[in-house]
Design a protein that fits this description.
The chain is of the alpha+beta class. 33% of the residues lie in helices and 21% in strands. The protein has twelve helices and 16 strands. Homotetramer.
């Protein structure tokens, strides 16, 4: 058996202490130079004819074009995608090559459920911080409309086949407790004392903010118009679909969706959606060399894990970690983006972290805008980048199935 004694380890530690200063320098500063997203389509809605990689490519092309960046300059790509059955081999690679990136570039598909897009941004940032790359693309994508049903590969000796909905099973099902994610939300609401009224109030406010944001052009800079070809001519989709569907007077009377007498309903839950988002990250030095004006710089990021059933509270663990690494407090943050898998997620964060509700999801969140799960983590970073004013700090957090979360802190330039 191999053993490492303290004595035998001393030369190793000694060599680390005598590493040249050039190799021990601080990590490279990472900046976000472009950030785009497609509109978020309803399931079986305006974007149903597109695969996830096609949506991802649309977002990435727009991000590159917005700053006149040659796709061949992008050395690597990380892209989130959750429900991958039937999407085709290496979804991220499909995005890279269809967007004009060089065949010599690399691409990796990330599945951290709802945090996939944000984790992609974090991995891209790390690649630059380590000095391995200088230009990296990141984002996420999902076409929930095209998620297939699954059949067992082996034939039964007798009887019926049972089809499994890949969207539910791979994307929206707590495999540890064998229940829908909404049931975990119900558990969290009870644990933290979040009432039905509180969740409904949050949901209606999210819809109102989204409606106001679209009316005032708050999303104009980040949106990728998507052209849908049809027999009667082309249609250009420029706007999220979900936020228009609310009937405010019906919200209080909706039945609970996951538990008899529960507090989580169709109104205070995120819907099923299609969409994609993309960001271009560079080292500050490379951006200067190329003459590209950065939008924001990445200050810190963190992940956190909790019990699977407690996933709605995971952002309250990840966000403080990211803030601590940035040497910032909640009060230093001008705007928060916290993904609204359910309204209860945001209510828990407000309560646990003492965040003013007026600073969270100022232009609405996933309850109203939609939750294309592979994209949502990067979508909220895109929206945060464009919502902040120069000099302001922003923080984004997203919970994910399995009991975890990711968080990131940025500063607008």
């Amino acid at each position: 058996m191999f053993r490492l004694s303290l004595a035998s380890s001393r030369p190793i530690f000694s060599s680390l202490l005598h590493t040249p200063a050039s190799l021990r320098k601080m990590s490279t500063e990472v900046v976000i130079v472009a950030a785009s997203r497609t509109p978020t389509g309803s399931i079986y809605g305006a974007l149903k004819s597109f695969t996830a990689p096609q949506l991802g490519s649309a977002a990435l092309k727009h991000a590159l074009a917005s700053k006149n960046i040659d796709p061949k300059l992008v050395e690597e790509l990380y892209f989130g995608n959750v429900v991958q059955a039937g999407v085709g081999q290496s979804p991220a690679r499909q995005v890279a090559l269809s967007s004009g990136m060089s065949t010599s570039s690399d691409a990796t598909t990330i599945n951290k459920v709802c945090a996939s897009g944000m984790k992609s941004v974090m991995l891209a940032a790390q690649s630059i911080q380590l000095g391995q790359r200088s230009v990296v693309a990141a984002g996420g994508m999902e076409s929930m409309s095209n998620a297939p049903f699954l059949l067992p590969r082996t034939n039964p000796l007798f009887g019926k086949f049972t089809a499994t909905d890949s969207l539910e099973y791979d994307g929206l099902w707590d495999t540890y407790n064998n229940q829908a994610m909404g049931c975990c939300g119900e558990s969290a609401a009870e644990k933290h004392g979040i009432s039905r009224q509180s969740q409904d109030d949050h949901a209606t406010e999210s819809y109102r903010r989204a409606e106001k944001a679209w009316k005032n052009g708050a999303f104009d800079a980040e949106i990728v118009p998507v052209t849908v070809k049809g027999k009667k001519g082309d249609t250009v989709v420029r706007e999220d679909e979900e936020y228009k569907k609310i009937i405010y007077e019906k919200v209080p009377s909706l039945k609970s969706a996951f538990k008899q007498g529960g507090s989580i309903t169709a109104a205070n839950s995120s819907p099923l959606n299609d969409g994609a988002s993309a960001l271009i990250l560079m080292s500050a030095e490379k951006a200067k060399e190329l003459g590209v004006t950065p939008l924001a710089k990445i200050i810190s990021f963190a992940d956190a894990g909790v019990d699977p059933i407690d996933f709605p509270e995971a952002p309250t663990v990840a966000l403080p970690k990211a803030l601590e690494r940035a040497n910032l407090s909640v009060n230093d943050i001008s705007l928060f983006e916290i993904n609204e898998a359910f309204s209860v997620v945001v209510r828990i964060a407000e309560k646990a972290l003492g965040i003013d509700s007026t600073k969270i999801n100022v232009n609405g969140g996933a309850v109203a805008l939609g939750h294309a799960i592979g994209s949502s983590g990067s979508r909220i970073v895109v929206s945060l980048v464009h919502a902040l004013k120069a000099g302001q700090y922003g923080a984004a957090g997203v919970c994910n199935g399995g009991g975890a979360a990711s968080a990131i802190v940025i500063q607008k330039i």
